[in-house]
Every structure is written in structure tokens, then in C-alpha cells.
Amino acid sequence: MTVAERMRSIDQTAEDTQRAPGRGWAALLLLAAVCVAIGAYSWSLMIRFGMQYTGLNRPVGWGVLITDFVFWVGIAHSGTLISAVLFLFRARFRTAVYRAAEAMTVFGVMTAGLFPIIHLGRPWYAFWILPYPNQRHLQINFRSPLVWDAFAISTYFCVSAMFLLAGLMPDAAALRDGSHGLRRRFYALFAMGWRGTAEEWRHHGRAYLYFAAFATPLVISVHSVVSWDFAVSIVPGWHSTLFPPYFVAGAILSGVAMVITLLIPIRRAMNLEGIITKPHLDMLSRLVLLTSLIVSYSYSTEFLLALRGGASPERETLLYRATGAFWPFFWMMVLGNCIGPLFLFFRRVRTSLFGLFSICALVNVGMWLERFNIVVSSLEHNRIPFDWSTYHPRLAEIGITIGSFGWFFFWFLLFLKLLPSVSIAELKEEGAHDHHHEAAHAA
Amino acid sequence: MLLDLAAALSLPGIADRDFHELSKARWQAAAKALGAQLETPQAQRDVQARGVVVGKTDAAARPLRLESLPLLLGAPPPASEGLQLVAFATTLANADPDAPGWLREVPDALSGVSWSSWAELSPATAQRLGVKAGDLLMLRTGDGTAELPLAINPALHEDAVAVPRDAPELRMLGALGRSVRAERTGKTFALPLTGHASQEGRDLARVISSGGELKREHGHEEGGTLASPHEHPKHRWSMSIDLDKCTGCQACVVACYAENNLPVMGAQAAREGRLMAWLRIQRSVEPGPTPEATRIAVLPSLCQHCDAAPCEPVCPVYATYHTPEGLNAQVYNRCIGTRYCANNCPYDARVFNWKDPVFVEPLQMQLNPDVSVRSKGVMEKCTFCVQRIRYAEGAARDEGREVRDGDVTPACVQTCPAQALVFGDAKDPHARVVAQQQDGRAYRLLEEVNTLPAIAYLARRGGQP
Predict the structure, then answer these.
(1) Exposure of B280 in the CB half-sphere (CA atoms within 13 A)
(2) Rounded CA gap, A40 and A36, in Å?
(3) By the 8 A CB rule, do B127 and B81 touch?
(4) Can you give the pLDDT at residue A247?
(5) pLDDT at B75
(6) Which of A146, A316, A330, B332 is surrounded by the fewest CB atoms within 10 Å?
(7) In terms of Cα–Cα distance, which of B447, B153, B187 is closest to B304?
(8) A246 contact partners, CB below 8 Å, separation of at least 6
(9) Which residue has the higher pLDDT, A89 or B63?
(10) Distances (CA, A) of A136 to A125, B230, B419
């Protein structure tokens, strides 16, 4: 394939993804919208009549909604890892997949950010958690991990959105130049006046590098902050210095697994098999394997420390987690997060779409259950045995969880059709680079 | 309380002596009558701890016969087969449909049941009948039948079925002491049951043998915290709770409902673990080898007003903070309802408003005007009756004096018939609460988490620790 042919094929593929949507896409979008409506109705009940619609009770103050929050923050993590960290490491397999991963990050944070508000007893005062000047001279409590959360999540949203938009500029400009009318104005918005001059490219390259460097520490810090919601408390089963690295590894595991879970159907549906190839998925699945091993190590450390520490509330809480009311959840989690990914040691599994998809889907389930186990079992089995109880999620909480998936996929589906889901500019750059090398070798 | 009354009436022989002297005179007389030897201090302490003088009498020992109980109650003697129907009094009126909400909602002290009638069986009998807690039990006498949900009571005699005296179903069963057949119906009933009745070996309500010392595994270590302790320039309100005196009667709990405008939430809330009580009696009923060996402990539990309160740093909006008088205050208006404080409270002292409270007409007329009614979505908890503290401080200021010990009496302290609760200023060296907190029996709940609570518990004396 000559350079010109290659460029044309990339252009063609990108153009194909922008074609008028099919019925399948419309049906999925409708489904997502219905899910959002279910979630919105469930939340409206809680706003009007109070948190009685949850299954929460006296010792269990947090449940499915906080589980969802941590889950979605985790999902958001891989995007930055793939687009920023791998960019800094010059890992070239990221080019084909990073745009989808980045979009997933932004939509993941947008979903996660809703939960701290939804789960408030008085969500209409959610803005009180932000430091804003007021006549009453009321300040926020900087010692509270929830305040750190508000900063971490909003920072993460801003940075990941900027990173996504910066990367989009040249592609949006290309699409703008090939379209008319409303569509043209839409792309012009994202192109931000991009003309493609050498100077713009130079600035863009610098800015992109800067954003990558700026976003990289966030991969570590945001989920560390989320883990402090638990680790800073004195609840047995939460109070652990292990939590930050354990949560970061878990976040990347769940995030990369989600990327793979989404990419496998997308590349099929949108004919991107030539761009997002099996070797790309192979590389991603190695990340799943690595982080799964870290997570397994963390689970065992957590248990060994508690078991070796003598009789203590920590030990009893952890034993309860594995054997108590939600024991199937615990062992499902072990199966999904620790045992399933071990099969990725085999190349045959890594390159089998079916195997990879099932393992990653199981990881997603396992990671949701992990957060549920941590949040719920620790509160159910706290320091005062008189209060030991079981938490049963209610319809409203399940409705909001469904709504969050609807919300996430609603945006993601729109993104797939409206914006290029692979980076045209970077693919071409890579193509040109490859060709250059091939030419040099031939000579 | 009776002694105070006697003193007020200046009864001769009583008014000029304190309780200790009176009781000593009483058991010494009993010992003399029985010819028991009580010379050693240890023997005297044992008498105090056990509350009985053991000696020999001339009469031959006769075992108490269960059959004689209905005779005492004026009922016909029972038939030989079947179980014996026993009615027992409760301090509240959980089973009485006509009782006011407070008395139905505050859980029964030993069974934990609220808002329902129930029948109790011993674990062995329940096993024999193939029923478990929450099953509906069909009780049959010659007079009639009644279906009652089952609660297991390990302290109950194996041949007895016990039903609270105010249960309307009792009328269906005819006279007490009848032989009653208990059958399983296969149906279940969601009994509104509060609390897990076991300490799971954590030894929260502590017991010391008479004359023994309190074992201290985790003392507060000086310098064991990086946080600097709070300064309390004037007062440091605190409380002591004598577990030796507490009978678990729940009067303090009801008083707290009345004083602090706690809403009555109903049976469903009791099932869901969403009762609003700021003060609860935590019970533990641990079965022993025989019904008599059942170990029962009660622990009044409320906000400990910690000096290093775990709830305070986690609130993002400072809705909870430490006042200069040592109270852990909750600002309802500022609370946004993250519930993080409740999660982080090791004592589970905090209560969340899952919905707007309802005070059915005309109950709104009995609300305490000094205490705000909270709305849905905010956290609340024991305030040490801060409104009463403010009144006492105001009264003292009007009279141009300092607040004296005994000026401030929270509702629970005022109501306790056994005077198990003592409230006062820990900065006043002559306060009764200070003397109690320095007692050898005094300990703090969950000392290992180093929260420095303002409440000291005094371990129960006697029995096996």
C-alpha cells in the first residue's frame, strides 16, 4: 500500500463512521434514553420524599450509589492512562484506541460526578461543598475527604475534557472542511479555528505533550483521593493504608477492561477492524493482566494483614466479607478480577475476541462487586455488634444504577456518530512514519 | 429517690442515714436471723454484689413449682401435657394497639420487638416444634386460638410460652396458666425487631467480679494522637453511666423522644433499622448451658461527645463541630446529608432523617418548642439536651452566680429511676460526674479507637466477667 492509498483508506474509514446512523444505533440510543429516564424518575422520588427509597439504614449509610460512584471513576481511569501515560512512554499501540478511551474517560467522569450529588440527603445544597465567597462567611472543611473528592473529580473532568478536545481539533477541522451547513458549524465549534499551519501543528504538539504530562499524575491522584473516602475513616475494613495503590490498580483494571468491552463490538459495528487490530487488543489485554495481578496481590495483603493481626474488628469484618450475607458477591469478585484474567497469560486467549470479551466483561462485573463489598460489608459489620445488619438495595437505587449506564452510553453513542472515534491525524502521522521507515529499509 | 422523699418528710431513723448505711443495717439484721457469718470484708462485698444473704434455715428447701404460678394468679391448675402460658409485664407497651406511639416504637428491652405482639419460646422448645424467630405460631387453649410471631428467649423455661401482658391476643386464649398447644403454621411474619442481641465477645458492657479490678487492655495513651486536644475554657459537659444501676427499662429512651421531638416512625421503619432514637439501650442476651445461665447485659448508648470525634473531620461543610463546652454539635441547617459522619462514628450514635417526620394532629401540640424539628435529608443526634444547658446557664447568670453541679439535667438523666446516669461539668472538681469518672469501675467505650469520649461507663459488679 502506498502512502496515498493508506491515507485514503484512513480517510475513508473515518468518513464511514460519520455516515447516517443505522437502525441499530437509533435503537441503542433510544434504549439509553429510556434508561436515563428511569434513573431520573428514581432520583426525583428521592428528592421529593427523602432517602427512604434506598435500602440504607442505621449502620449502612452508603450503598449502591457510592459503589456506582467509585465504579464510574474507575472506568474513567483507563482513558487517561491510555492517552496520556502511554503517549509519554511512546507506546504506539495507543494511537488506534486512545480517542475512544478518552471519550470514555470524559463520559465516565460525567457519570461518576453525578453520584456524590445524587446520594446527598439534600442534593439541592450540593454547591455548599465548593468554596465560594458568601455573606455568611461559611467555609468548607478542608479536612474532609469529600471536599478533596469534589476537587479531584472536577479537576479530572476539566483536564480530561481539555485533553480530548485538544486532540480532536485537527480531526474536527478536517471534517469541517468536508461538510456543509449545520454539520459544518458543529465541527467548526470543535475545530476552534484550526487551519493546519505548521505553527499551529508545532503549538499543538507542545500543548498535547503538556496536557499529557499534566494528566498523568491525575491517573494516580484521583483514585487515591477516592480511596481516601474510605481509608481516612476509622471503619474496620476501610481504614487501610493499602487503599490508594490498590484502588488505582483496580481503577485501571476496570477501565482497560471496559475499553476492551466497548472496542470489540465497536470495531465490528463500525468496520474499524483494519485500524483497531487484534495486536492492539492484545497489548491492552496485557495491561488487564498486569493490573489484575496487582489487585490480587492487594486482596491477599489485605486479608493476610487482617488475619495475622489477631482478633480484631478488622479481621471479623473481612471474614464477614468473604462468608457473610454477600459471600457470593465476594467470590464472584475473586473469580472476575483474580482468576479470569489469569487466562490472559495465553496468547490464544488474548487474540480470541470471544475469550477476551468474556474475561473483560467479567472484570467489569467483578470490579463493581469489589466496590460493593468494600462499601457495604464494612458498614454492615462495624464495631458495635448490636447494629450489625444487612443492606438490601432497593428499586430506586437499581433504577439510578441503570440510569447511570444509560447516561454514559447515551453520550458515548452520540460521540461515536458525531466525532471521529479514532484519531485521523495521528493515524496518518503514524502511517507516514511507517512508510518512511519502509522506504529507508528498502533503500 | 425514695430516700430523698424520706429526707424531705424527715422520717426518723431514715432521714439521717444514707442508703449505704440503711442497706447495711438491713442485711446485717438478715444475716443475724440466719446465723450467717459476715465478718470479713470480702463476705460483706459478696452480699452487696449478689443482693442476697445466704444462710441456713430450718425449713426444708422446696423447689418452685411452675404449676403453682397460676394458683398464685388465681387460675385453675394446668393440664399435664402441652406448654404453660405465661404472661409477662414489659416496661413499655409494644404489644398494646391502643398505647401511645412512643411506648410502641421504643423496642422492648429484652426481646427488641416493637409495634407488635409476640410469643416467646426457649431455643430448645422452638427447635422441638421446628419453628424459628419470625415464624407465626398458632397457640391453642380450650378457650380459643391466637396466632403470634415467635421471638426466641434463651432465658425462658422450656415448658413455657410467654406472651406480653398487654397483647390483645391474650384475651383470645382465656385465663392464664392454661395448658397451651403451640403449633407451627408455616407462615412467617416480619417482626419489627431491633438490634443484634449479642456482643460477639467484644465486651462492650463490662462486668467485674465483686472486689475485682477492671481489666484495661487499651488505655488512652498520652500523646497517642497527633491532634491537639480541644481547650474547654469554661465547661466540659460529660456524663457517667453506671451499668450496675441500669435495668434497661428504656425510660431514658422515651424521655429523649419527648424532649427532643423525635418522630415516631412506625413498624416498617423498625424493620428497616430506621428508628430515630438518639439514645438506645443496646441489649445482649447470650444463651448459656441452662436458661438460668443466660447472660443478659444492657448498655445505654448515645453520642459520646468525643474530644477527638471521628465524625467532625469528615463533614465537608462543618455541619458538625466541637463546641467550646465540649459538645459535639450538629448544625441541621448546614447539613447536606452525606452520611459520612454516621459511617465514621464508631458508636453508631448518629441518626439520619430518611424522610420528613410526621406528627399527626394533635401530637404537634406536644412538641418541645426549645428544640427544632428536623427535615428529611439531615443528620441528627444526641445534644446532651443543649437547650437545658442554655437554660441553666441563663438562670445562673440571672442570679449572678456560676453554674452549679446539678443545675443541668438532660432528659435521660432526669428520668432514670435508678439514677444510673449522672451529668455534669468535668471541669468542676467537685462535680459528682468527676468522682464517678475516677471510679475504679469507670471505662470508656471502644477505648482502642482513641476518641476520648465524654461519657464514662461504670462496669457492672458481680457475676462472671
Answers:
(1) 28
(2) 6
(3) no
(4) 94
(5) 47
(6) B332
(7) B447
(8) A227, A294, A295, A298, A302
(9) A89
(10) 15, 25, 43
- What is the interface pTM, i.e. ipTM, of the complex? 0.91
Q: Please tell me the predicted confidence (pLDDT) of residue B76.
A: 45
Mutate to test the interface with A, among B330, B340, B358, B379 (most CBs of A within 10 A): B340
Residue keyed to cell 441452662: B290
Tell how far CA A17 is from the center of its chain: 23
Dist CA B328 CA B350 (whole Å): 11
Q: Are strands B145-152 and B119-121 parallel, antiparallel or unpaired?
A: parallel
Phi, psi (degrees; rounded to nearest 5) at B119:
-120, 145
* Per-residue pLDDT reduced to its tens digit, A96-109: 788 888 899 999 99
**How far is the C-alpha of A324 from the C-alpha of A60, rounded, in Å?**
15
Q: Do A384 and B347 touch (CB under 8 A)?
A: yes
The model's confidence at residue A134, banded by pLDDT at 50, 70 and 90, is confident
Measured between CA atoms, the residue of chain B closest to residue A131 is B317
* pLDDT of residue A33 exceeding 90: yes
| List of E strands, B192-345 | 207-208, 237-242, 280-286, 295-301, 320-322, 328-330
Q: At what angle do helices A145-177 and A198-231 cross, to 10 degrees?
A: 150
Distance from C-alpha of A96 to C-alpha of A300, rounded to nearest angstrom: 35
Residues facing residue B256 across a β-bridge: none
Enumerate the residues of chain A whose CB falls inside 8 A of the CB of residue B315.
141, 144
CA pair distance B252, B130, nearest whole angstrom: 38
C-alpha cell recorded at residue B434: 468527676
Task: Reduce the DSSP state of residue B392 to 3 states and report it.
Answer: helix
Residues in chain A within 8 Å Cβ distance of B376 = 49-51, 121-122
What's the mean per-residue pLDDT of chain A?
A: 90
Interface touch A122/B318, C-beta < 8 Å: no
pLDDT under 70 in chain B at which residues?
A: 1-8, 11-17, 35-37, 39, 46, 48-81, 175-177, 210-211, 217-225, 463-465
Residues in Cβ contact with B366 at an 8 Å cutoff, skipping those fewer than 6 apart: B258
Report pTM.
0.89
Q: At what angle do helices A145-177 and A64-80 cross, to 10 degrees?
A: 50
Among the listed residues A189, A63, A72, A136, the one whose alpha carbon sits nearest the alpha carbon of residue B317 = A136
Rounded CA separation A419/A437 (Å): 31
CB contact under 8 A, B318 and A139: yes
Higher pLDDT among residues A434 and A193, named by residue? A193
Percent of chain B with pLDDT over 90: 59
Q: Residue A106 in contact with residue A157, Cβ under 8 Å?
A: yes
> Which residue in the set A122, A385, A389 is minimally distant from B200, CB to CB?
A385
Report the alpha-carbon distance of residue A408 to residue A331 in Å, rounded.
28
